[in-house]
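>> received
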Amino acid sequence: MLNVLIVDDNPVEREFLRFLLEEMRSVKVVGEAEDGQEALELISTLNLDIVFLDISMPKVDGMEVAKELIAARAKAFIVFVTVESKYAVEAFELDTIDYLLKPFDRSRLRKTMMRIKERMAAKAAIVREKKTNRFSFRVPKLFVRSEGEILVVNVPEIIFAEKDQGKQTIIHTLKGMYQSHKNLSEIEQELARFPNFLRVHKSYLINMDMVEKITPWGDSSYKVQFAKYPKDALISRKNAQLVKELASL
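>> returned
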């Protein structure tokens, strides 16, 4: 939901813009102001995503409000809404998102909202990329919280993970076993970007790069043995098709 503030000294214009915005499910009008001074007071207290801002207003005009917002590094997008085209160049020099000339209709407003959502998506992508790069390791890691400690496990060293009693998980690695408070499905999700990890049983997630042998076990199930590791895992009957696919490679 996008929180919106409408700033205009004309109550009829404010009501019209509110009407159009409230037709959109993703928008919530959280405040209105009739001049720039009142707008600045509201902006300081509200968590805003968009400010629709008239330019010619008493006390403090829209341009001054926009400059103060930018100087304060406010996250809200600024959309000027005015009858005057002469401020357009100055508005875009301020890097405002759009400049709506009155009168406008819902189609023009929807284009503005689409532009805002595209800009927000682009910003979110940059944040995700920065976060990914910040935590980029030469050897991928799995962070395991266990008994008040955070253990750092090299993903290539994981042999398999198995469901423990309750909701915990035991992670078997080349360096030993670790108990995690996360359940097996959560571990599976964290390792989902590594195609060599397969959930082959409700109780087992295995690293196929560590598998040495797969043999029949019981009623249509299979036992998985690992190179130089004494413990085994199981492939359930439901996942037996996986063995057939592997055998046909």
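>> DSSP finds seven helices and 15 strands in the chain.
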